[in-house]
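Model the whole thing, not chain by chain.
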Amino acid sequence: MAADAHEMTPRAYNQFASDNYAGICPEAWQAMDRANRGFVASYGDDIWTERACACIRDVFETDCQVFFVFNGTAANSLALAALCRSYHSVICHELAHVETDECGAPEFFSNGTKILHIDGPNGKLDLAAVEQAITRRSDIHYPKPRVLSLTQSTELGTVYTPVEIAAAAELARSHGLKVQMDGARFANAVAALGLSPAEISWKSGVDVLCLGGAKNGMAVGEAVVFFSRELAEEFDYRCKQAGQLASKMRFISAPWIGMLESGAWLKNAAHANRLAAMLAAGLEKIPGVRLMSPCQANAVFAEMSAAAAASLRSAGWHFYSFIGTGGARFMCSWQTTEDDVHHLLAAVRQAAEE
Ligand SMILES: *Cc1c(COP(=O)(O)O)cnc(C)c1O
């Protein structure tokens, strides 16, 4: 399959822009194929969806409530809307996807809930700043803090430890806040930490997890996982109203079975993490290149001269540079190969020397 992909797109190795540039991994693809045989009831009332929910309960070792939606923006914004009323606020990191990349969807679906963003090193929340944001005001003129939102792994490719999550959740809980986790890359965090999914979610105090599928190797789809039954009340209506209830739900749910039962979700994540570590180690050795945050998952953030970044780009390399001039984000996915990493390192070496 990888060989075919390279034949079709000869410059495929020039791509480190995002893990969602990758295709569908074989395990997800085969699961869709299996679900494609014959007629099956629509709107999630089917055996595939039932089994996918059971798989997620098994993986998380608890009786959680599971909903499948099309993408991460829907998962995050609907989960936050379920936890908040219009006059509430959500506290998150200033680089959080819910703040910077969802076009105001959390505010829209919650009818006005305000996002309050705070700083913190390496993409992680600074708890003193969180506490200050929560306690700064208690009067009626300030949007009442209701949810603490954490991203795991973070937008800067770092990973919260269970101790850090538990401390954040404890702080949130002591002030009456719920904890939502944006887990678009949760699998990468599980693989990086080598801990059980339960340990870094509900056992550490997470109330709702938005579990990523697309960047992990599926075609489309994320799962919203509620660890408490009350919080999930009427969430199905929210999904339907938001246009997130797939009529052919089995094609969103079945891939989860393929990914979770085979272990591909963690295999893919561990592979992407390993290549990112390899890339980070190589970049660090190149004069004029500096890592901007520790590489703990599948992202590598590197700083180089603006001229070097421009030269890489003109040589056809794709990467993001939303973190300032000369800053480059390189993402690895299940489909990235060691050769891709070697090619990129050679190109960066050349660009840095010019
Ligand atoms: C990719 C991503 C999402 C999901 O984005 P969609 O494009 O809406 O699927 C959510 N959170 C983070 C941190 C992401 O990187």
